[in-house]
Please model this.
Amino acid sequence: MPPLLALLLWFILLICLFAFDPAKDRRISPALWLPSIWLAFIASRSPTLWVGLVTGTTPVTALEEGNTLDHIIYLALTFLALRVLVARRVQWPEILARNSALVLFVLFALLSITWSDFPFASFRRSLRDLGTYLMVLVVLSDTRPLEAIETLIRRVSYLLIPLSVVVIKYFREISVVYDPWSGGAAFVGMASSKNMLGALCLVSGLFLFWDTLRRWADRNRKRTRRILLVNAALMVMTLWLLNLSDSATSKLCFLLGCLIIIAVQSGPGRANPSRLKAMIPVVLIAGLLLEFFFAASDMVAGVVGRDTTLSGRTEIWRILLRTDINPIFGVGYQSFWLGTRMAAVAAAYGMRGLNEAHNGYLDTYLNLGLLGVCLLVCLLIASYRMLCRRLSISLHFASISLAVWTILVIYNLTESAFGNGLPWFTFLLVGIVVPRSDVPADAQSHRQAGKSRMVAKRRTV
Model:
C-alpha cells in the first residue's frame, strides 16, 4: 500500500472514531479538547517536533532553533484551561485542602527554584508543569468526571495508537531511532523514544483492558458489543506496539496492572475489600526485602530479557549517587540535568544525550533532595489511602485507580515519571480529589435541607 494512502485511511478512521465512537458521551463538555490536545503532546512529541514532521525539520534542528513555538502553544492552552476553571467556579480552597499532600510536594518543588543554578529554566519548566495540573482539573471538574477521564484516554489512544502503527510500517524515517543504550534501531512510533512508546501502550492497554472487563457483563447489548469490538481492535494494535517498543518496564507494569484490576473485580475482591487494601503494600514491601537480601532484580531482569545492569542503569545510578549535591534540598526544580552537570555525568558514563537517571526516586533526590523524596513518599501514601476508600464506593473505578497507583510506584524504579509525563498525568487523573461544583446553590440548599429533615425524622423515630 502506498504510504500516503495508508495515512489517508488512518485520517478517515480517526474522523470516524471521533464522530461515531460507540462509547462517545455527548454530555461531556467541549472544554475537554484542551486536556486532550495537551495529553497528546505529552504522550507523543512536542509541538515543535510535530511541526518538524510537516516541514521536514529534523528534531535536532528544531531543538537547536529553540522551542518558542512550544512555549506559545503551552501557554495558550494553560490560559484557556484557567479560563475554563474560572468559569466553572471551582472551589479552590477545598481542592487544596483535600489534596494537601500533593500541594505540599508542588509548593516545595516551586520553592526550590530559588536555590536552582538555572532559575529561569526552572521557572519556565514549572509553568508548563502547572499547566498539567490545570488540565487535570479541567477533566475532573467536568459534570461527569469519570466519563471525562474515559473520553480523554480514548481520544489520545484513537489518535496515537493507529498512527504509530502506520508510521512504523510506512514512514520508518520518523518512527525509528537509534537506541542510546544498545546502539541498535528502536521503534518509537509517534513518541520520541521507545520508552515513551511503551508508556503510551501501557496506559492505553491498561485502560482498554479495564473498560472491556467492566463492560463484559453487558456484552449482549448492541452498543456494548460495538464498544468491545473497538476495544479489541485497539488492544491488538497496542499489544503489537508494546512488544515492538521492547520496553521491559512497561510490559511488566502492564501485566501487574491487569492482575490488580482482575483481583479487585473478582469475587474474593468484592467480598473482602479489606484484604485488597493490605495486598499491594505487602507485596511491595516483600519485593523490597527480596531485593535487599536476595537481589531479586537480577532474576527479574533475566525473566524480561535484560542483563543484571538493567541495560546500564545500575552504572548510571552509581555515578549519580557520587555526584556532589546538597543532600537535603537538592539542586533545584528540574535543574540537575542542565549545564555542566549533565555534561559531566554523560562524560563519566561515556554516552551523549543522557538527560535522566532512569529512576524517578533518584531524579527526585537529585533535584529536591531528601526533603523532596520524603514529601513524595507522603504523597504516595496519602493517595493510596484515598484510593482504598473508593473500594466501598465504586469498585470499578477503584480497580483502575489502584492499578495506576501501583504501576507508577514500580515504573519509577527504572524510569523517571514523577512530576511530568504520561504515567504522572494518569496518576493525577485518579489521585486528585475535586469537589463537585456544578450543582447550583439553591439545589445544594434544597439537598442540605432534605438531609436535615431525614436526620430529624430518624431522631424522632
Summary: Residues 3-454 form one domain.
